[in-house]
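User: Fold this one for me? It's Integral membrane protein.
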Amino acid sequence: MSGRRVLDALRSYPRRSPVTFGYVCLLLLTHAWVLYGLTAERADELLRQVSTNLDNLADHPVSAVLGSALFFDGTLTDVTSLYFPATVITLGLGVCCALAWAERRWGPLRAFGVFLAGHLGATLLTATVITVALRQGWYADDVRRALDYGISYGAQTMMAAATLALPRLARLPWALFVVAWPFGGAEWAGPLPDFTTVGHVLAAVLGLLLVLPPVARRLDRRPAPAPEGRDPGPRPHGRYGAR
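Assistant: Here's what I get for Integral membrane protein.
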């Protein structure tokens, strides 16, 4: 892609994906607020409140799950940190690219519905895995209070779903990348990697389920093109038709 086309795509981004653009701006604002607007103690207290660990899910599940989706866990400035590539993948590829693509293809309600479903679904499935792992002695008990917040599960789901946007030959390598990249920094406890790796893999699986043809057809808001030379007739109204 030429530099001119990149600039044109950036200029048109707010118009073509306005809700995603607004969400990215919100994430940047909350990130700056935590870093520069709060003391270290207040920031730590806030992030622990929105952490989706077992204790918080038992005490205040709704505010923890929704609050967690308002922050990203990473860095935009420390390019030498191991957290920087993860930020590029989750915020850059997962939200800025994949979520924006889904908004254009499915509409904002369906796109963000899928994002939140991945965020919530992976969180709850990971909590189940943690519960089982604690009973088996694979995880230390302090995992119940671990700091675990951010957009990465929803972003991972969208990255997997965006497999549909790629040429057929690129889909399998991309899907393998989405599933495999979380293992790059995995720490193993018995037969399981750390719970965040588990969560990212589960989120990827949820996203790949959306690639299945029956699910993809239901999500797609665009009507099928009429055969050439034929009048498509009036567009239907209803759940999957025009409104």
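One thing worth pointing out: The domain at 15-219 is CATH 1.20.1540 (Rhomboid-like fold).
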